[in-house]
Amino acid sequence: MIVHRDNIFGLHRGDYSLLLRLNAYGLVELLHFGEAVETADWQAFLCQPGLGWGSSILLDDKDTASCPDSLPLAWSGSGRGDYRESPLELGTATDFRYASHEIIDGIVAMDSPLPQAKGLAKTLKITMTQPGAELNLYFTLFDGVLTRRARLQNTGDAPITVTKFMSSLLDLPGDYEMTTFDGGWIAEARKHRVPVLDSRIVNESTTGASSNRHNPGFLLSEPGATEDAGRVYGFNLIYSGNHYAAAQRSLQGLTRVVQGISPNNFAKILEPGAVFETPEAVMAFSDQGFGGLSEKMHRFVHDHIIPRQFREKERPVLFNSWEGCMFDFDHRRLVNLAKEAKSLGCELFVLDDGWFGQRNDDTAGLGDYNVNPKKLPHGLKGLGDKIRSLGMEFGLWFEPESVNPDSDLYRAHPDWALTDGFQPLLGRHQLLLDLTKPEVRDYIVENVGRTLDSAPISYVKWDMNRHSTALGAKAHDYILGLYEVLRRIFGPRPEILLESCSSGGNRFDLGMLCFGPQIWCSDNTDPMERQTIQGNLSYLYPQSTFGAHVSAAPHAQTLRSTPLCTRANVSFFGCLGYELDLKHLISIEKKEIQGQIELYKQYRKVFQFGTFRRLQGGWQVSDGKITLAATFRGLVPAAPGYGTLRLKGLDRHKRYRFRTNPQKLRIGQFGNLVKHVVPVNLNPNGVLLRTADRHITLPDGIQEMTISGAALLAGIRLLPVFRGTGYDKNQRTLTDFGSELYIIEEDSHEKS
Ligand code: GLA
Question: How is the chain split into domains, by residue range?
């Protein structure tokens, strides 16, 4: 609901409100953003500056309350008395004042190819003007989430140069801490929480992509906010290019937050009549801590961002050829792998890099689309048909935005590579194609489209491994080109499941999610690392957007050995896949994987679409009736304490059947301690133990009970863990990096 009374706008939806006030000078003041309140109470939120604040500038010399530097604003000018961060810079002063407004049913469609949130909404459009330019501010109300964006039109007769244009500006009263998600390749989404003080904190990407360095999503929380309590704001941007966000506290105790395209080297010339619009910024508020905020963000992504046709569509368990084969495969090897994958329960076989051109390593072939006849003598169609005949779907990897100098494409069109006037710099032996050129976009659309139509392909992994050196406005135009290409390829082929990837999670953003519902979180599949990466991404993105694979141990990036069950228990909380050489699996491992996939399929809907909650030391997903909870352990201490599992969101009056998902212990893991486990004396280095290890497993401790929701919410004690006193089937013996999965189902037989 959007209420307009006199000079007040009340924007209300569900449990949040935004109150705006048009002040006497035509500036838009932000009275309140957060808890649901009444429009009629607007006066309670008024900030009333009493003084002219010393050396500050006044909008009206007679009105000491007219100091723009001390007002809480929802937009501001630059060089006109507000010395805080400005949202729009044109090389001269800017001073936009209110001209008109409109209340619109629904969303307002973008003029450009930028993606935007879709669905039931109401929009307030405020138009502000200054001589020669018109500015539109859009505030769109979705369930749980508010979006904002801005649009500038040159209404004068001389060009305007835009050097900075934010999507949103908010002055929030109070002190906050800012949480950002930073990192790099194989180390995505490291969480950092720092107080917002009087110096500016910036969360920015300048790599041409949203980047693994700084995810565009971030949080502002009141000091002391916890997972389950306290006031928390969440922010994100529907954009895959260079982004910028900053927070800074003012002397008057207002925290200014801006979000938008990075102004780094940005310059866009607007000719008379021309328009520039910003990406859409996303913001939400919860008074129920980080968990409450995440729930809102998850629902928003699910309902308003990912393509509609995938909203409730269960995603297939996939097998990906990359980590197992790299570039070394042929038709026979792939078919054998597919047979193995099928026998384990996989539903989709994905052929990763290496199927085209002279792509035998990463130095050549990108840009070419001719199938390598040596590796694939029956073509993609022959392979796809064979895989389909085995009862699996077929998926394919592409990296359409890049070109290797050693490729037919580059030899034919060296000018299609994105250049910056200097000697080209290679990244992973490749250059980016210039997606701002229509002929380049046409080439990609035609070739990817032709390939997709040439074989039964139901899934695409869209990779991007070299980031841009193109700066500023060109970087933005590149992203617009990418969005056009994606729309042209996948618009007519809506059934294709698109998973985006950029050296792992280098483009984990809401822009890419508007085109494909899942993203490869990281090339790092070590489950201990994944607990960090997936756990931290979960602050802003639902688990159905996570491509999460079980890979081999010891792990390629950490050399860490982890139990197979932990690798699966982490990947279950996402879209499960397997990515390892299956021919090296021994039969007990195969059996274990079969069991994992069976379990995942049984509860897939809950794993993928259930409400995700972070627990102390674990995660849970729940659809209300079924809850699946995993607890993860790091290094086992010598004298372990009692373990407690405290679940969330259950009905305290209902009864639930609680059980451990059975896990197996490999006998070989005991080494010279094996005498504590089996009654025979085995040589720890002998053939007998090695043979036994391949065939004999021991059950790990199982806990089973029917119990009230109240007890599960209060926290129940888990089975003891190994304490140096030998194997006991009633304890949890899994050692370092162990984990358990618990299945909790509403008990329909018991009366509440
Ligand atoms: C990137 C991706 C990997 C894989 C390789 C193939 O590194 O992140 O998953 O697809 O490219 O070259």
Answer: 2-47+56-305, 314-605, 627-746
